[in-house]
UniProtKB/TrEMBL annotation:
It holds the Pfam family GGDEF. SUPFAM superfamilies: Nucleotide cyclase (SSF55073). SMART domains: GGDEF. This is diguanylate cyclase. Keywords: Coiled coil. Gene3D superfamilies: 3.30.70.270. Signal peptide: none annotated. PANTHER family: DIGUANYLATE CYCLASE DGCM-RELATED, REGULATORY COMPONENTS OF SENSORY TRANSDUCTION SYSTEM. It is an enzyme of class 2 (transferase).
Length: 325
């Protein structure tokens, strides 16, 4: 008894006949995907060609299959994400195995159909059975490819998370020095004016010496979150140790100073106590220096030097203040 076909099993064959394409495994795959998943890359590419009633030509069909094949996809993905950590590389290998398995299934189907083509043309085989087997193998290959795509999505998410972690300061969650340098380079490339501010926690060494590094870390986190809140939508990073950087794509130095003074005032209005003993810690404050950069990379270097000098002037003039270059 011949295998029973799904109700829409003949539709891909009708599609091929309508467009005068040979009923090869590759063309059948194209037709099946285009009809069953019109939102897929293959489905959209086919739809663009036949939207105005045009027939799809064999060379166009070949191009679509080649452009959206598994080999092209995974090759492009690997090139885009060349620097993977060891555990992510392992996942890539797993995905490659899935893709290879799906490709093997498609290749096996093509070989089987080729072997039976002669028999079919001589009337010695049941065409319904062959098409049914084609459908079954295609669905199996599609399932493997779907699994591979799901793993690719997971891998991309993990890559993005790893990339974000690599650019974040572990203690504060702010941008780290690597991210800061990249952001400054991007602004320099655009050549647009930017205000750069360097801020340093006042008397931080005495905090560490008196209360220990655990309390010192909490103070760093507190100042970091206060600066981030006051400078909403601006770039805030940890420059190093107890020092922070704020970058605003603007030439308005006064606006940056205003935001930094808001952060200073917030700290001044807060009564800090030790968690363990409830002992008052006194004022937590910071000093800052602000400078304007206009131009390329050298402008960043100059502005950072100017901001650093302004910061130390603020320290010399009594701390807990913001000065511009």
């Amino acid at each position: 008894m011949s295998a029973k076909l799904p109700e829409d099993a003949a539709k891909p064959l009708e599609f091929l006949a309508r467009h005068r394409l040979a009923a090869t495994p590759q063309n059948y795959t194209l037709a099946y995907v285009a009809l069953s998943d019109p939102g897929s890359p293959i489905g959209r590419a086919v739809a663009e060609i036949i939207a105005e009633g045009y027939r799809i030509k064999q060379e166009e069909a070949d191009h679509i299959l080649e452009a959206h094949g598994t080999t092209t996809f995974f090759g492009a993905y690997e090139r885009k994400n060349g620097e993977l950590s060891a555990h992510l590389r392992h996942q890539t290998i797993k995905i490659g195995e899935l893709a290879s398995s799906a490709a093997d299934a498609t290749g096996a189907l093509a070989r089987e159909l080729s072997e039976e083509a002669t028999t079919l043309s001589g009337g010695g085989a049941d065409s319904t059975s062959i098409v049914a087997r084609m459908i079954e193998h295609s669905l199996q290959a599609q399932a493997r490819l779907t699994a591979a795509m799901d793993e690719v999505k997971t891998l991309r998410e993990e890559l993005e998370a790893a990339r974000n972690d690599a650019q974040r300061d572990e203690l504060t969650g702010l941008a780290n020095r690597r991210a800061i340098d990249a952001h400054l380079a991007e602004l320099a490339e655009k050549g647009e004016p930017r205000v750069i501010a360097l801020c340093d926690i006042d008397h931080f060494k005495s905090v560490n010496d008196r209360y220990g590094h655990g309390v010192g870390d909490r103070v760093i986190k507190l100042v970091a979150s206060t600066l981030e809140d006051a400078c909403t939508a601006q770039f805030v990073g940890r420059w190093g140790g107890e020092e922070f950087i704020v970058i605003m794509p603007s030439s308005d130095i006064a606006a940056v100073i205003k935001r930094l003074n808001q952060a200073r005032q917030t700290l001044a209005d807060t009564k800090f106590k030790l968690r363990e003993t409830d002992e008052p810690m006194g004022l937590i404050s910071f000093s800052g220096g602000v400078a304007l950069a206009v131009g390329g990379k050298q402008a960043n270097v100059t502005a950072l030097q100017q901001a650093d000098k302004a910061l130390y002037r603020a320290k010399d003039e009594g701390r807990n203040c913001i000065l511009s270059a």
